[in-house]
Design a protein that fits this description.
There is one protein chain. The protein is an all-beta fold and about 80 residues long. It contains no helices and 6 strands. It has strands spanning about 1-5, 10-20, 30, 50-55, 60-65, 70-75. The strands form 2 sheets. It has a 3-stranded antiparallel beta sheet with strand order 1-5-3, with no helix packed on it. Strands 4-2-6 form a 3-stranded antiparallel beta sheet, with no helix packed on it. The protein is globular and about 45 Å long.
Length: about 80
Amino acid sequence: DYEQTTNNKVGEGPTCGLIPIGGRCDDVRTTGLQWNLEGDVPLEFGGLVSSSNRVVEEVVTVKTSSPLLFTAEMIVEEE
């Protein structure tokens, strides 16, 4: 099992995603996202891939049975 908790920091936007790496991920549970996952639907290409979720809390937690790639939008300030 894998678990990662992160704080939303300045420079990160609200859009994020969870991408399965190397195959199906049967159990994914999250907190702090607009559309939290409860472990009842696997993530896999050809099925559900969470590519357009949103961070809504200061802390995001991801618990998963297989490796995932967590993506986050970056905010670039124009000078």
